[in-house]
């Protein structure tokens, strides 16, 4: 009797594992076959700065695919899939700023927040990177696998995987210098010491540059608005490194970091814009794009 129960448990476990593997493969294949609509020639990638700041409804033939806490590591693999299957893309706007090169960002890739961020990208990663993700999240493996399954289910039933990610319902916010200080401390400091640079984010920034060159797609760096108090307190170390990285590739940069926005154009942390700020930022972007084509 005990032997029969053991066999049943083993068979059930084997069946569940088999179904899990089949589901992973099927979802991975579907995700890796995604394309943008034929009329889309410009895509915007990056983290919450891009997601909140660029209203693609105001832009022609454009799609905002920015996601909260998205590192250049994840942007690279997302872009790789897009360019492979979407020949209509001619221009890629990459949100890239001082905070992106801080080691603070590593916590979203392989650190303490990886288990909640990386499942959103798991199915577009090559097998070697999926293995690394599992290895990085091994201590939280049960929770991590459940998150992967949830992400897979969303991808499977979502009609359009590559839908606009622009989302900004933040209104009537008051900029607060104390909250800005907390934001700066989070992004640039650890234990009162300046953070190091994120080697992984810098590596995949370079890979994005190479990828766009291979596909003959124009890459434009986009630096979104910052409140003047926030910008004035970004450590010089990160400004210099940012300038060094972008200058080394001779890339076109659309720098909106210092454009004039009203106080209610920023959220309390001075790092992200509100709905009002998004409208003004997108209008300014349109102006700069038009002046460049003249």
Task: Describe this entry's structure for a reader.
This protein is α/β, with parallel strands linked by helices and 294 residues long. It has a domain at 40-111 and 161-293: 3-Layer(aba) Sandwich (Rossmann fold). The protein is 51% helix and 9% strand. It has twelve helices and seven strands. Helix 2 (48-53) links the parallel strand 1 and strand 2 (62-64). The longest helix has 30 residues, at 2-31.
List keywords for this structure.
single chain; 294 residues; alpha/beta; Rossmann fold; five-stranded parallel β-sheet; two-stranded antiparallel sheet; 12 helices; globular
What is this structure's SSE topology?
Layout: H1 2-31, E1 42-45, H2 48-53, E2 62-64, H3 72-85, E3 91-95, H4 106-109, H5 114-117, H6 127-136, H7 141-157, H8 177-188, E4 189-190, E5 193-194, H9 199-214, E6 218-223, H10 228-232, H11 236-248, E7 252-255, H12 275-293
Parallel strand pairs: 1-2, 1-3, 3-6, 6-7
Antiparallel strand pairs: 4-5
Helix pairs in contact: 1-7, 3-9
């Amino acid at each position: 009797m005990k032997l029969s129960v053991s066999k049943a448990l083993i068979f059930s476990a084997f069946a569940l594992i088999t179904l899990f593997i089949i589901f992973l493969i099927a979802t991975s294949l579907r995700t890796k076959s995604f394309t943008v609509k034929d009329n889309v020639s410009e895509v915007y990638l990056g983290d919450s700065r891009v997601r909140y700041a660029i209203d693609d409804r105001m832009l022609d033939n454009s799609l905002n695919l920015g996601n909260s806490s998205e590192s250049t590591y994840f942007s690279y693999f997302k872009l790789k899939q897009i360019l492979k299957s979407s020949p209509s893309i001619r221009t890629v706007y990459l949100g890239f700023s001082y905070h992106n090169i801080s080691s603070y960002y590593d916590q979203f890739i392989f650190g303490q927040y990886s288990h909640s961020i990386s499942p959103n990208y798991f199915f577009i990663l090559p097998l070697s990177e999926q293995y690394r993700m599992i290895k990085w999240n091994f201590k939280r493996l049960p929770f991590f696998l459940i998150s992967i399954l949830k992400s897979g289910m969303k991808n499977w039933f979502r009609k359009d995987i590559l839908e606009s990610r622009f989302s900004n319902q933040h209104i009537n916010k008051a900029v607060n210098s104390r909250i800005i200080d907390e934001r700066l401390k989070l992004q640039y400091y650890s234990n009162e010491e300046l953070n190091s640079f994120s080697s992984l984010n810098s590596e995949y920034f370079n890979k994005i540059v190479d990828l766009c060159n291979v596909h003959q797609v124009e890459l434009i760096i986009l630096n979104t608005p910052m409140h003047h108090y926030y910008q004035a307190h970004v450590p010089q170390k990160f400004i210099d490194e940012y300038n060094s990285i972008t200058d080394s590739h001779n890339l076109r940069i659309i720098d909106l970091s210092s454009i004039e926005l009203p106080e209610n154009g920023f959220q309390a942390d001075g790092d992200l814009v509100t709905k009002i700020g998004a409208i003004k930022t997108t209008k300014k972007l349109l102006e700069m794009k038009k002046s460049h084509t003249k």
